What does this fold into?
Amino acid sequence: MPGRLNRDVAAGALFVLSGAAGLWAGRTLSVGTPEAMGEGYLPRALCLALVAMGIVIAAGGVIRGGAAIERWTVRPLFFVTVSIIAFALVVGIAGLAPAVLVAILVATFAGEPVPIATLAVFALTLTTAVVVGFCWGLGLAVPVVPGVYL
Amino acid sequence: MDGLLGNLALGFAVAFSVENIGLCLIGCILGTLIGVLPGIGPTTTVALLLPITFYLDPVGALIMLAGVFYGSQYGGSTTSILVNLPGESSSVVTCIDGYQMARQGRAGAALAIAALASVVAGVVTTVLIGLAGPPLASIALLFQSADYVSVMVLGLVSAVVLAHGSILKAVAMIVLGIFLGLVGTDVTTGEQRFTLGISELYDGIGFVPVAMGLFGVAEIIYNLEQTRGRGIVTATIARLWPTREDLRRAWAAVVRGTGLGALLGILPGSGPTVASFAAYSLEKKIARAPERFGKGAVEGVASPEAANNAAAQACFIPMLSLGIPPNAIMALMIGAMMIHGLTPGPGIITKQPELFWGMVASMLVGNVLLVVLNLPLIGMWVKLLKVPYRFLFPAILVFCCIGTYSLKASPVEVMMIALFGVIGYAFRKLDCEPAPLLLGFVLGPMLEENFRRAMILSGGDASVFVTRPISAGFLVLAAILLVAVLLPAFKKTREAIRE
It folds into this structure.
C-alpha cells in the first residue's frame, strides 16, 4: 500500500539516518584534496552516498509500495541480547563460570519453555563442559571464578 | 607439471602431519554436522570458530575452516534427500528430486550419488585451484594500487549482482560496510575516526564481533521467531547402492555440474547456492525427457550436488591468489588469516607455499574423508536432527561470547556482538542481506588505502582508473555485470533463484 511504512521506506530511512549520523560524527575530520586526502574524505563521500541511496530506496517504497514489515517478536530479540550483555558484565567481575551460567539461564527464556529440572541439568552440564573445554582444553587465560584458573 | 607435482608433494607433507589431518577431520565432521542441522550454516560456524583458530597455527586453522565449509556441502544434501529439509541453502534444489527418490525407496542410491558427485567435483576443482592459483597470482603481482581498487570494485559489484533482492539495498549495505570498516585510527594521518571516545574502537571495530553478531546472533533470533519445533519424518533407506542405470545417467550430469560450479565459484559474489540452482536448470533444459524432473531424476541430484561442491572449492581461487573474497565465507577466511598476521594477496603462494599447497592437499584428503565418513554414518546424522533447537541455541550463544572474550578479554567487544546481532536482525526484517555489508567491511580499509595511494600517484587525477589497462579491464567487466543485471531476461532468472 503506497505511503504506508513498508520495508523499503524503513530501510531507506535507516540508511539516511546512518549516513546523517556519520556526517555529523565526522564533521570535524579534515577532507583534504583528491591528491592528498584527509581522514574525512572517503567517510564523508560514503555517508553522502548512503543518504542519497536511502532517499531513493525510501522514495521507491512510497511510490511503488513494498512488502509490509513483518511483526517483530520481542521475546527472542530481548532475551538473546540481554543474555550476551549479562555475560559481558558478569565475566569481568565474577569469572567465566558464573557468566556462562547466567548467559544460558537468560537465553533459555528466548525459546520454548523448558521444565525447571531439565533446565538445571542442561545449564550445569553445558557450563561445566564449556568451562572445562575452554579453560583446560584450550588453555584460555580467563579465571573460572576470581583468582581460580584451570 | 613437474612443479605442480613437487608442490603437491610439499602440500601432502603438510596435510598429512598428525595435527593437520586431525584438524581436517574435525573440520569435515563439524561441517557435515552443521550441514545436517538446518538453521545453522557454514558462515555462522566459521564465524564461531574464528577465535578458536587463534590457538592453532595458521595452516591448521585454515585447513579446519575450509573443511567446515565443504563438509557442510556434503551434510546439507543428506537431510534434503531423507526428510525434504535442506540443511543448507545450497541443497535446496537437491530436495526436489532427491526426496522423490527417497519416497520411492531409493534414498540410498540418492545419497550415494550425491556423495560421489560431490567427491568427483571436489577433487577436480581442487586440482584446478592448484593449476590456476599460481599463474593468477603472478599476474596479480603486476597490480598497482589503481588495479586493486578496480578489482575490489568488481568484487563488490558482483556481490550485488548475485545477492538476493533489491540491488540498491545491497549497494547501500556495501557502502555501510565500507564505512564501518573505516572506523578507528586512520593509518595515514593518525586521526581518530568515529571512535566516540571508546578506546576499544581505536583499532577499528573488531571483525569477530561483527561477523558473530550479523550471522550467529541475528540468525538465532530469526530462527527462534520463525520456527517453534520442527516436525520431522524420517524416510527409510531401502538400498544403498545406485543401479548401473543410475550411474549411467548421472556421470554426464556430474561433469556438467562440476564445470558450471567451478566457473560460478570463481566469479565473485556467486557461490554454491547459485551454482546448484544453475546446474539444476541446465540439466532440466537439456534433458531429453524433462518431465522426469521433480519425480526422482538422478540427474537432478547429481548435477546440483556436483555444482555446489565445485563452487565451494573454486571460491578459494580468488581468495588465495588475489586476496579478494568472493563471498562472506571467504571474507571470514581472510579474517582468519589476518588474525594470524598474514596478509592475503598474490604474495601468499610464493611466500607461504606450505600454506597454499597444504590447503590444496588437505582439500583432496578432506573430500575423500567425507565420502568415507558420509556413506556409513548417514543413519547417525539423521538421528542428530532430533537435537532440539532450544538446547542448541544457548550453547551457540555462549560460544560466541567466550570466543570473542578470549581474543582481547574485552567486555565491550562482547557487547558489540549483541549490537550487531540486533542490527543484523533489523536489516533482515527489512530485506537487506548482511553478507554484502560484511564484504564491504573487510574490503573497506584495503579499498581506502589503495584508493588514496592511487590518487597520490596520479596527482589527484581520477582518470588513472580507466587509463591503466588492467584496471580498465576490471571496470569494464563490472559495468557489463551491472548492465546485465538490469536487463529484463537476466532479472527474471535472478528472481527465480531467490528462495
In short: Chain A has two domains: 7-64, 74-137. Chain A touches chain B through 69 residues (CB under 8 Å). Helices of chain A lie at 7-25, 41-64, 74-94, 96-108, 116-137.
